[in-house]
Design brief:
Strand order of the largest sheet: 2-3-4-17-8
Shape: globular
Radius of gyration: 23 Å
Strand content: 25-35%
Length: 424
């Protein structure tokens, strides 16, 4: 796999090294704030982009995937009804407005050793820990960009999931990629690639406002069929599967993209899950189990389903993580600070001169305050601090009368969230 100059900075450790592999190509099937693995009963912390069947609701089951219509999947292999997702990717303008960016081509490679690899059992699911891919000090340039990540390929052989959604699987060790004794069962290694071919120079962020790329997977394979593919090797793979609408990669990316767009499936209808605005906005909806979930199974019935209050064991915040390894390996966008350091995060500073932007009318917001700006999309007056969270000078320059109302937060020896606080 070749990377452009921009891609080389952003690529993770995904690699296609096994002798046997096949590829499954996708276009996004939708975007919404759900996560069927981490938050099956409510809205998730941030917006995700999905690939596969158009089943984006939180109460997703294996049977739902198996019973889904393969002709409506955004993938090109009809026998694979699995669902994949990752935090949605955004361009962030200088004024803070976030614009959703859809990948132009997404590919999942299945890598395995024939006769030594076990198919995913019914109900199997997992999450990658991920790592930072966008450099805080560098802005991806124009041209091609690629993000890639590998899922764990060793399984404990017992659990279909685990409390942290990662402990039941593990990465192999050494050059021979040997599974540890705690996770002795070899499963296919999934290498997940998302690509853009004509990017513009811009500030990129994930929906959780982090630089971290992670991904989720729920198997939708018929176990015996996938096992037959793994046992037989990739020599006659093409004759064993059905390529939707004849979509098949034959060495030419441009031809494949044209073929996939010509046979694009309808996007998932998420209007019975949530009606939140998630594109061209200043502030993305955030917070696990915050907001109104219309239906946990995506079916409108005329009434709203109340969202439960998350228990600590279900949704940790960064501050509840008390060691460096767990902090940096978390999937919720945390970072461990071992020294006093200025963080690129602009926060509203309390002062007697600060009446609070939300209390101002549209007229007063524009006419009387030089630290507030009216957000027409959300129909409210908001602080400018959040618009300057990455620029220390601009942050400190935001004033009202004699008071500086923006400041940078100082943290020491603790795990913290990389996000701008809400208007206060």
């Amino acid at each position: 796999m070749k990377f452009s100059a921009a891609s080389a900075i952003l690529a993770l450790t995904a690699r296609v090294t096994y002798a046997d592999f096949f590829r499954n190509d996708f276009l996004p099937v939708g975007h919404t704030r759900t996560d069927a693995i981490i938050n099956p009963d409510c809205l998730s912390d941030h917006v995700h982009t999905f690939y596969g069947p158009p089943l984006l609701y939180p109460k997703l089951t294996f049977d739902d995937l198996r019973n889904s219509d393969p002709s409506l999947s955004s993938g090109n292999i009809e026998e694979n009804n699995s669902l994949y997702w990752h935090p949605a990717v955004y361009h962030v303008a200088d004024n803070g407005k976030k614009t959703l960016q859809e990948s132009e081509m997404t590919t999942v490679y299945y890598n395995w050793k024939p006769g030594k690899t076990t198919a995913f059992p019914p109900g199997f699911r997992m999450v990658t820990p991920g790592e930072d891919v966008f450099d805080e000090g560098k802005t991806p340039g124009a041209g091609e960009m690629e993000l890639s990540i590998s899922f764990q390929s060793c399984w404990d052989g017992v659990n279909l999931d685990s409390p942290d959604h990662m402990s039941h699987v593990a990465f192999p060790k050494g050059k021979n990629e040997k599974c540890p004794k705690s996770h002795p069962v070899k499963i296919p290694r999934l290498d997940f690639f998302i690509r853009w071919f004509n990017t513009k120079k811009a500030k990129w962020r994930f929906a959780d406002d982090s630089l971290r790329f992670h991904a989720d997977y729920v198997s939708g394979w018929d176990e015996s069929f996938l096992q037959s593919l793994l046992d037989g090797g990739d020599g006659d793979f093409d004759s064993k599967v059905t390529f939707r609408a004849g979509i098949k990669h034959e060495g030419n990316d441009k031809k494949l993209i044209k073929q996939m767009n010509k046979n694009k499936v309808p996007k998932a209808d998420t209007s019975c899950i949530t009606t939140e605005k998630i594109d061209t906005v200043f502030n993305l909806p955030r917070g696990a189990c915050n907001g109104t979930l219309i239906s946990p199974i995506g079916v409108c019935d005329g009434s709203s389903t109340p969202t439960p209050t998350p228990q600590p064991s279900e949704s940790l915040s960064c501050k509840e993580i008390n060691n460096e390894d767990d902090c940096n390996n978390s999937i919720i966008g945390c970072s461990w600070e071992t020294e006093i350091k200025q963080i690129k995060e602009c926060k509203v500073k309390k002062s007697k001169y600060n009446p609070g932007c939300k209390s101002l009318s549209k007229e007063n917001c524009k006419g009387e305050s030089d630290f507030c700006s009216y957000n027409d999309e959300q129909n409210e007056c908001q602080h400018l601090c959040s618009y300057h969270m990455d620029d220390r000078k601009k942050c400190k320059s935001v004033k009202w009368k004699k008071a500086k109302i923006c400041k940078y937060r100082i943290k020491e020896n603790e795990c913290f969230e990389k996000c701008c606080p809400a208007d206060s």
